[in-house]
Amino acid sequence: MSDLNQDQLELLELRAYLAKLNHAYYDLDDPLVSDQEYDQAMQRLRHLEAQYPELQDPQSPSQIVGGQVSSDLPPVPIQYPMLSLQDVFSSEEVLSFVDNLRQKLGPQSFTVEEKIDGLSLALRYEWGKLVLAHTRGDGHHFGENVTDQAKRLRGLPLTIDPTIPLLQVRAEVYMPYDDFNKLNQEQEAKGEKTFANPRNSAAGTLRQLNPDLVASRGLTYFVFDILALEGRTFESDSESLAWLSSLGFAVIPQIKICKTNQEILAAIQAIAEERETLPYGIDGAVVKLDRLALRQDLGATAKVPRWAVAYKYPAEIKETVLDRIDLQVGRTGRVTPVAILKPVQIAGSTVGRASLHNPSIVRALDLRPGDTVRLSKSGDVIPHIISVNYALRPQPAPDAWQEPTRCPVCASPLYREAEGIDLYCESPQCPAQALGHLIYFASKPAMDIRGLGEVTVASLYDSGLLRGLPDIYRLKDHQEALIADGFIGRERRVGQLLEAIEKSKSNDLWRLVTGLGIRHVGPQAARQLCQAYPDLEALSQASLLELQAVPDIGPETAHSLINFFSQAESQELLAQLKALGLNFQAQAQEADKQAGPLAGKSVVITGSLDTLSRGEATALLEAAGALVRLSVSAKTDFVIVGENAGSKLAKAQELGIPLISAQDLTDFVKGGV
Fold this sequence. Notes:
The chain has about 675 residues and is of the alpha+beta class. It is about 35% helix and about 20% strand. Strands 12, 13, 14, 15, 16, 17 and 18 form a 7-stranded antiparallel sheet that branches. A 5-stranded mixed sheet has the order 2-11-10-3-9, sandwiched between helices. Strands 5-4-7-8 form a 4-stranded antiparallel sheet.
């Protein structure tokens, strides 16, 4: 692997970052950043890829449409690609797009229409009957079969003209604002999680296994394109959409046919002015070449058609009044200030709260109750406060905000890491952290209890059967109730889960140390600790200096360990787990590992590997006798590099340490190199 400059490293980092955002948005229906932030990152990635064509990758987020196929829904092959659109952010970019097409094709008409903020869907009709509906999935190969769910969409015709052999259309599924607000009110009344925005709720609902939810939550649709049609042709997009409307489909409303640049810009502006009055969410305006034959000639890239662009409106900004600042405790114990606001309508939803992220944000803005604040929100994330209008501050001015010293839920002392900005509640028994601890404890990186996933944990938590980690190992005492109440499933499934829980008692110690959720102690650090200390008692009594002597255990991790083991709540937790029969001993290292092909080699893994997961690579290395380390040093023998390698890659290059790929590792261990 040749040396990479800073721009090339940034390119690789952006790919991994955007892949993570795509997974959250398309697969989890839970976006991590605003549209604007996502678009800026994607623009930067495309710029860098154009600058460094030697780093082109067909699996780059810039070349892939949508997300992956959900494991809960049956996959279906995609016959006709469902591409995304090229985003533009200025009038100049819009005019550059249409002028370039005119130079190639001569004078042309364009359509301008609303870009509905929803979930893309393909609907297939054969001889007039709806036979298949699938999501976009990865856009090219597989989508999710949601035929039963689609049949519950409000107003969707299940039958059309029976003389049409084949018609496949593309639609956008959305949830009207009224239905969205009603749904969230119902969720709040039941004490359940509310949805962030209509797009998320529409996507999450359509992908539920229960089709009745689609009707009860008011999901509906707009058709905007014909993917396939037999027995009829059209000259223009506008003509084809008019025909679809005559068949009973709801099509994108108020499509403007424009011939001049002025008409195109005026149509985009008209949509912007109507945006706040629409009963559904939009996140832009689409400009498309109207003539269908010319679209066919122009074709598409791997991700976007060459005959259309999506103009993205800038983020909305609104003013409202800060009522107070509350504190929220997350599953890791992080305490986050939250602004409670006078409700304001922004980007299609009523907003009454905004995350302030950490105490430094509150101090920097000098936020006080009664302040008039400016909110920014681009439509699909919780808004954030961007500024304060101090001229409107009430007089006399309220006292400045005081940083908390105790957890608002359990009153335990709060802790800030050295040079850190976040506050944490260190009590492992804090109720606010309990559900997150339970989920992580049972997860694959930790105790790996099959059948005890997030949904099951949440159900058992709500029932009162799980409140802390020891309760997992007491579920066997409630076997009859579990079967009768159906918290998990039928008798066989309950038996399988209880068997998996019992089996986990004999896990190696590093899994238990990981599952305890001690900050900075993930699976690799836990392995290192358990190689240095033969049992949990010895680890719990280690001093700060002794812990820092363990390879890859730095000051922050050592302090976190000392802080955890010094608490009475932690000691009580460990005592209960030991009494319940969990293994507190580290398993002896296999002697034959010393004779492996990588015996004694110090190896670091960095970045996202393409052929192996991080856990698989670690297991492969350890089985070959290698010592997997967390940080690069002069003693490192080689570094396995994936995408988003970052500072560890730079350090390895600086020290001249050999770099290999995950495939190189596999080939080497198997004797192929």
